[in-house]
Amino acid sequence: MVVQLPEHIDPLRLAVRDFATRELRPRVDEMEEAGAIDRSLIDKIGQLGYFGAPFEERWGGSAMGEIGFTIVQEEIARAHASTAVLVAASSGLAARMIAVAGSDEQKKRFLTPMAQGKGVGAFCLTEAGAGSDVPAMATAALADGDNFVINGQKNFISNGQLAEYFVTFAKTDPAQRGRGISLFVIDAGTPGLEIVRLEDKMGIRASDTAEIVYDNVRIDRDRLIGDENTGLQHALSTLNQSRIGIAAISLGMAKEAVKLAWEYAHQRELFGGTLGDQQVAQHTLADMQISLYTAESITYRTALMSDAGENIESEASICKTFVTEAAEETIDRSLQMHGGIGYIRGSAIERIYRDHRVQRIYEGANEVQRNNIYRVMRRLYG
Ligand SMILES: Cc1cc2nc3c(=O)[nH]c(=O)nc-3n(C[C@H](O)[C@H](O)[C@H](O)COP(=O)(O)OP(=O)(O)OC[C@H]3O[C@@H](n4cnc5c(N)ncnc54)[C@H](O)[C@@H]3O)c2cc1C
Question: What distance in Å separates the CA atoms of residue 279 and residue 199, rounded to the nearest whole number?
């Protein structure tokens, strides 16, 4: 397969980069300090159609395909990982669940505002006792007439404080594991829904990560997304696509790290020349470029496969695993090339290094991705 990008991609990349340069980068330090993303910035991202990139126009989307959404996330992440995570969690996870499993009425009600950035979404799956082992979740939704009553707690939820819509997984058949999980959408402010901010993350400090407590949260039956007990099945297909987004974020961060390494190497004077005059530094930069080329190819290819409707069950896991690990190595090399200054709080590479570490952990830790890849291999070789 020749990786040929659609025509809209180059102008889109330039437009996102222009937005990031003029409106996002100047606010990064202030948002890192505040530990929050500026609401006016979220509005702007919505107006530009970037939250809506993967969704159809009839639901408020901008129909740029998975490949367009990949470019959006990559270019935003080049400037600020936390902002990219906000977009990924709201559109790539929460809104996408509605797009995949919701009725037309639910899409109009919940997907459209999320696609337009008028309402932020949170994707509430992980619990203290159920991270990689999703079917072990304990949060339960009990049917009561025309209502469901939800009790439980979710951990590590991105956009928890900002969100208007909490796309929540809960067991409707607690006797079952994966086959007893359903999906609901809950509005912020619903009685019994409590948000507790998690403090002090290593990185992505401007991305808010919260614990969500459900204390007898009563919702109408029309908040059930898809059929009862099919929540996990929808989550698995959604996560396949959103993993391309995680790769895109890593790719953007790695590209920025290479640019920073190049600039630093060619301005740092030592031994009568610059660091960039040393062949070791040149080879390190060349290795970083090899890594970027490979990571970019695999990310765009997987996005295009998704747009073509191909099965990406294994490819999405390969893409997430390879690109997050290649990017981590590249970012580490860039920091090393910066020497001591790269270790000092406030240097751009120091933040990228901290921000990137979580990429191997969330949306299915890389060990879990390797389980997926092996499972498909058994079908192929087995
Ligand atoms: C900053 C941040 C934001 C997040 N945002 C969200 C969000 O918006 N929504 C959401 O639902 N969740 C979110 N998460 C949760 C994230 O998806 C989980 O942390 C992740 O799935 C891992 O689960 P865990 O932390 O419980 O680790 P565990 O599942 O306890 O795993 C611990 C370790 O064991 C490994 N492991 C687990 N199972 C196996 C196995 N079978 N074989 C080999 N190794 C294994 C894991 O890879 C990991 O290294 C977020 C997490 C963080 C840190």
Answer: 43
Q: CA 358 to CA 328: how far, in whole Å?
A: 10
Measured from the Cβ of residue 373, the count of other Cβ atoms closer than 10 Å reads 16
Q: How far is CA 10 from the centre of its chain?
A: 22
Residue minimizing CA distance to atom 22 of ligand 1? 131
pLDDT digits (tens, 9 = 90+) for 149-163: 999 999 999 999 999
Q: Measured from the CA of 130, which atom of ligand 1 is nearest?
A: 26
Residue 276, classed as helix, strand or coil, is helix
pLDDT in tens, 191-241: 999 999 887 899 999 999 999 999 999 999 999 999 999 999 999 988 999
Structural domain ending residue among the three candidates 98, 119, 140: 119
Share of the chain above pLDDT 70, in %: 99
**How many domains does the chain contain in total?**
3
Range of the domain at 295: 232-381
- Flag whether 2 is in a domain: no
> Quick check: CB of 214 below 6 Å from ligand 1?
no
Instruction: Assess whether the C-beta atom of 156 lies below 6 angstroms from ligand 1.
Output: yes
Strand, helix or coil at 259?
A: helix
Going by the DSSP 8-state scheme, the letter that residue 212 receives in this structure is: E
